[in-house]
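Sorry to interrupt, but I need a hand with the structure work. Go ahead and set the record down below:
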Amino acid sequence: MTLAAVVVTFNRRAQIEITLDRLLAEPVDHVIVVDNGSTDGTREWFETLTDPRLRFILAEANLGGAGGFEAGLRAAMAEIDPDWIVVMDDDARPEP
């Protein structure tokens, strides 16, 4: 079974940091993060991350939540074809 997570963020670096820490502590196979054009240092922080499960989609403009989820889900199906996908905003996160 392959599990992927799709997370959408926009200018909420503190929130996405917590969410990715929590997600990567779980047995998730892939995490696709859609950044909707953040200007708060989020993208620069992404460059420091090396976990091979991470994939970033860096939108040039804010696609909104629906547009971000559509881009992330499309990428997940095209690149991974997982058995399960969980979707969440940058401030939604799994409990340990």
Remarks:
- The beta strands are 3-9, 30-35, 54-58, 84-89.
- Residues 34 and 71 are 7 Å apart (CA to CA).
- The chain has a mean pLDDT of 96.
